[in-house]
Design a protein that fits this description.
Strand order of the largest sheet: 4-3-2-1-25
Oligomer: single chain
Strand content: 35-45%
Length: about 375
């Protein structure tokens, strides 16, 4: 391990931009944090979340975080295997691996509350039923600086939410959720809040949600066409310019499960039911991504991310007692006349082995 790290240090001086960032991260690893594909020592109760660091000059580095049920997380970054150099001939072969990165004192997180803005990942926590009446001693919004791998607190949500879903539009975080109205759990009301990441202030103006005529309980969200879309039993979109909610066609909600979705250049992609699709908003129709792409089983755990304008796909493969995490990089080509999008798999490989009880949760794109 130490010899491989020494080689990384020597290569560091020859690298710039993204290469430097990746090396600076991996050189801090202790001998107990393996960089090979051998099984790392991970807890059984694990939350895996991912983000990509997108450089202006280089392809992004890809990272992953694992988390216990209490605040103790393990983070990973995608890097070249020891003694490997990246060439055009090797790009489609297995030269990448997820290596651990130390991120101290990571707070609890869940899929709908994790979003990325610039070089930061925002973790917006919902309140559990047991915590609903407790006084918060710290903020329920924390921010991970992906340059320094350190957490800081941001201003708390204006109210405690028992369920929420967050998405980003124009560097503002839009949060839809439910809160308890009165003393009964039978009365949950919708609420909607906007956080300006530049000013670090929650919008003080109350945005009415009564006209949505649907519950935001366990909703999912995405931002396309300049609107914040919320999917429940129907899909509604908030038009911030006209301050109103619009009902969107039911077709969009068919595969709009944000656990399986991502937005790339204002196009919504989905891997729901094991098939890669994209949503054509002009004709209100989901279409299958064309090209030599594999279909997965309907219950496969698949996560998508914007990987510098390309589609990053992570999925799981169950083995005897273990589970492999696979990564694929897919370039996208839009055919406007035919109204089709074609994908080409540039490379794919298994990048991490974890205990069978682990599962991927979230993928995010971060710019440095």
């Amino acid at each position: 391990m130490s010899s491989s790290l020494e080689k990384k240090k020597k290569r560091k001086k020859k690298r710039k931009g993204k290469r430097k960032t990746s090396t600076a991260t991996t050189k801090k690893l202790s001998p107990s944090s393996p960089q090979s594909t051998t099984t790392p020592l991970l807890p059984d109760d694990l939350l895996l979340s991912c983000f990509a660091r997108v450089s202006r000059l280089y392809y992004p580095t890809f990272s992953l975080v694992s988390k216990r049920s209490h605040p103790c997380s393990l983070w990973y970054t995608l890097c070249l295997k020891p003694n490997q150099t990246l060439t055009n001939e090797k790009k489609k072969s297995s030269v990448y691996v997820l290596a651990t990165v130390p991120v101290p004192s990571s707070p609890r997180s869940h899929f709908p509350g994790l979003v990325a803005v610039g070089c930061n990942i925002y973790n917006i926590k919902k309140s559990s039923y047991l915590e609903e009446k407790k006084e918060e001693l710290s903020s329920n919004v924390s921010v991970l600086d992906c340059r320094t791998h350190t957490w800081r607190e941001a201003p708390s949500l204006p109210m405690k939410l028992l369920t929420l879903s967050a998405s980003v539009l124009d560097e503002k975080i839009h949060v839809a959720g439910c809160y308890k109205d009165g003393g009964s759990w039978n009365y949950l009301k919708n609420t909607f809040h906007v956080f300006d990441t530049k000013t670090q202030i929650w919008d003080s103006e109350t945005i009415p949600c009564s006209e949505t005529k649907c519950s935001f309980f366990n909703s999912r969200s995405a931002c396309i066409d300049g609107k914040f879309h919320v999917k429940t039993n129907k899909v509604v979109a908030y038009n911030s310019k006209e301050a109103r909610w619009d009902l969107v066609g039911q077709e969009m909600g068919e595969y709009m499960t944000s656990d399986f979705c991502c937005v790339i250049e204002n196009i919504l992609y989905s891997a729901s039911h094991g098939v890669l699709r994209w949503y054509d908003s002009e004709v209100s129709m989901w279409k299958q991504l064309q090209g030599g792409l594999r279909n997965f089983s309907r219950d496969a755990c698949i996560r998508l991310a914007d990987y510098g304008g390309k589609l990053a796909v992570l999925w799981e493969q169950e083995l005897f007692g273990d589970k492999k995490i696979w990564f694929a990089e897919i370039s996208l080509e839009i055919h406007k006349i035919e109204r089709e999008i074609w994908g080409e798999v540039e490379w794919f490989s298994d990048v991490l082995t974890v205990p069978k009880s682990c599962s991927i949760v979230k993928v995010l794109a971060v710019t440095l």
